[in-house]
From TrEMBL:
Keyword Oxidoreductase belongs to the record: no
Protein name as catalogued: CRP-like protein Clp
Ranges of residues in domain HTH crp-type: 146-220
Species whose genome carries this gene: Lysobacter brunescens
Taxonomy of the source species: Bacteria, Pseudomonadati, Pseudomonadota, Gammaproteobacteria, Lysobacterales
SUPFAM superfamilies named among the record's database cross-references: cAMP-binding domain-like, Winged helix' DNA-binding domain
Primary location class: cytoplasm
Length: 243
């Protein structure tokens, strides 16, 4: 179970018992390799299965009537894909792989054991779903009120804060295996404006780029500039039911 990305992520927020780890491990029993750029499911698909991301990066997106794409959520190793869609019979967004990866599909019904046997774990899964909504709300605020440079800076901070949940030794340098098109569709910018914003951040000394690697040279300054709040750093568990 030490190789479980899901256990690693959940364990960041909550001390897990061995029965808790066993429940989570069952969600990762099946594995499906996914190639880069593959669409895993379409919008409007029946919500029968959910996924644990074991490896790779994925994203949810919707297509607007004029064909433009809006990227909603990014998914990293350790994420459960579909938590906000649990109440619905059909998905509201398509799921696509940004990189090659591995998904572990499991039936939505399998969550019943978590809710019946591990109420603290169920409370945490509920909270993580709410964190996803908070992250999306933050991005809506940024898109509606900030310029290109600030949008891209906020996006980079959002990515690194989530990566640190399962990579606790991660410093200021990380790999960003996303195209400028995907970044642009997440923050409402064209490729040209994403490229320009990254160049501006680099020229100002805020970041350094080496291929797909990004290094945040002035993370505190970037956070002040965009009023960034790390939604992933700590979840309030004080209200969780007793173990």
């Amino acid at each position: 179970m030490s190789s479980s990305c899901l256990v690693e992520k959940i364990g960041y927020h909550l001390r897990l018992s061995e029965p808790d780890k066993a429940l989570l491990a069952r969600l990762e029993e099946a594995e499906e390799p996914v190639s880069a750029g593959a669409q895993v499911r379409e919008a409007g698909s029946t919500v029968e299965h959910m996924y644990v991301v074991r490896a790779g990066w994925f994203y949810d997106h919707v297509l607007l009537p004029d064909g433009r794409r809006q990227v909603l959520h990014l998914h990293y190793p350790g994420d459960i894909v579909g938590l906000p869609e649990i109440p619905f019979a059909r998905t509201g967004a398509a799921l696509t792989s940004a990189t090659g990866g591995v998904l572990c599909p499991f039936p939505k019904q399998a969550l019943d054991q978590v809710f019946e046997r591990a109420p603290r774990l169920a409370a945490l899964l509920f909270s993580i779903g709410m964190v996803e909504h908070a992250v999306l709300a933050d991005r809506i605020r940024v898109i509606g009120r900030m310029g290109a440079r600030e949008r891209v800076a906020h996006f980079l901070l959002e990515v690194v804060s989530r990566l640190r949940v399962t990579r606790r030794d991660l410093g200021a340098r990380f790999e960003l295996p996303l195209t400028q098109a995907v970044i642009g569709d997440a923050v409402g910018l064209s490729n040209v404006y994403v490229s320009r914003a990254l160049s501006q951040l680099e020229a100002s000394g805020a970041i350094r780029r080496r291929g797909r690697n990004i290094e945040l040279l002035d993370e505190p300054g970037m956070k002040r500039e965009v009023d960034f709040e790390d939604r992933h750093f700590r979840i309030d568990t004080s209200w969780f039911p007793a173990s």
